[in-house]
């Protein structure tokens, strides 16, 4: 159910993002999805990769500070009101969102996938059991076996 | 504390006997040596004789220890102005060793030793190691730099005189330091505290522990009590503060004992005074001021009332370890480390203490001073560590804010705190450079 997301600390300077990406490329690690949060002084690069343990090692060896968090991938119907419907379900389950980002995973269809960071992912999974319209995507579906 | 004492066997070493002299006997010894050294300097060092003559003083005027207070000071620039050999009191045939300090501006300063001076030096370093609980059977990794810097060779001969096993690894090459530390079953290490913090960090990354290491003998730069607490907690060793300076002899001027409540000055060789650094007036024991030292036995280069620029106080009470030689408080700052920003005096150690008060990690930090439209700005850069890093922006902004507030609380000054990536602040293998001043004053 839960997916391991890696976060990297970056100083807000030109060229800072390329170094970790190059390190992953060299190690043959594919980035499934990512997002970049920024402030005036620093950024946090969050990414989902196929082999997070190996990626963490590679990034730390390259000198990065890496944080591992569990996030949920949730299917969102690709139509007007799709995301609103999912968010309403979170509301009913009294779940606050820390942050989210969206991605598509290869095969184009009628559904999109969004990564959601909840304070407590286990509580979120349990709370969403009563919401049939929200489907939490298994990690194998996006990361493969 | 009792744990500290029992953990350090600290077998009494015969060479440590002067540490325990009855006070009256110690003062008599000091006076006898003082009179001899003042006479030697007067006869053999032109600058000192000239300054004495200007004041109408002769060595015979020194009848008791307090008479020292009338004698002229010696300052660092005297060593530069008489470069290289102007303050030597022995002919070159009697001088067996020269050291020099890395001068940050212009010429270095040169210091000299006769064989007797080297013997004294080894004996005070031996007493230093004994006070840190070391003895025969200890394996000491000496990571102070060998060379013109006094740290390496000073610690080396003291450790050999002690009868310990010395590994003269010198500074640098962190991976090799950690390998030797493990493989050679090292029990004690000598280096600067900031370099040991670097070793802790690398050991963590390499997933190594410190094996049998139980004692750190740290000196050559000021460090705070908070830093010591963190070092001891993170590495599981006892971290002792030692003090010395090349102008006086090198390391071995003063050392902590197992009580870790101030540093015992080996005052049978180095006579301490505390003065008001603005007026030069002597201050009573217990008052904070600038430490002034007189070498009582140094033959090649006697220093009379040398102004160290280090700020401390003499602790009047006798230490519970039983040593009778007086203690000075740990030196957390030098009067010339201080910088002034917007009229406020700031010491880097205050910033360090404020940072350590916030997060449970050893900070690598740097203070950058700039001037923007005539107004001084102070920025503190702090490296992010895995322990404090979060995937949430507000957690990191909260951390920056907490650090800034802690500094503001300590200094009464609003400063900018910037988190920076790990290993972006330059590591030093000797003394840490904490302040970058770009104000071009």
Short description:
The complex is a heterodimer of chains A (145) and B (441). Helix content of chain A is 30%, strand content 37%.
Question: Descriptors for this entry?
Answer:
heterodimer; A: 145 residues; alpha+beta; VC0802-like; Alpha-Beta Plaits; 2 domains; six-stranded antiparallel β-sheet; B: 441 residues; alpha/beta; GMP Synthetase, Chain A, domain 3; 13-stranded mixed β-sheet; 21 strands; globular; disordered N terminus
* Count of alpha and pi helical runs of chain A: 5
Any idea how many domains of chain B? 2
Largest sheet of chain A: 6 strands, antiparallel
- CATH class placement of the largest domain in chain A: Alpha Beta
Structure report:
The complex is a heterodimer of chains A (145) and B (441). The radius of gyration of chain A is 16 Å and the shape is globular. The model of chain A has no long low-confidence stretch (mean pLDDT 88). Chain A folds into two domains: 2-69, VC0802-like (2-Layer Sandwich); 70-143, Alpha-Beta Plaits, CATH 3.30.70. A six-stranded antiparallel beta sheet of chain A has the order 2-3-1-4-6-5. With 145 residues, chain A is an alpha+beta fold. Chain A has helices at 18-26, 52-61, 82-92, 121-128, 139-143, and strands spanning 2-11, 31-38, 42-49, 66-77, 97-103, 111-118. In chain A, 30% of the residues lie in helices and 37% in strands. The longest helix of chain A has 11 residues, at 82-92. Chain A has five helices and six strands. With 441 residues, chain B is of the alpha/beta class. Helix content of chain B is 31%, strand content 24%. Chain B contains eleven helices and 21 strands. In chain B, strands 3, 4, 5, 6, 7, 8, 9, 10, 11, 12, 13, 14 and 15 form a 13-stranded mixed beta sheet that branches. In chain B, helix 8 links the parallel strand 5 and strand 6 (215-218). In chain B, helix 5 packs across helix 6, helix 7 (174-183) packs across helix 8 and helix 10 packs across helix 11 (393-411). The N and C termini of chain B lie far apart (46 Å). The model of chain B is unreliable at 1-9 (pLDDT under 50). The interface between A and B is medium-sized, with 22 and 19 residues.
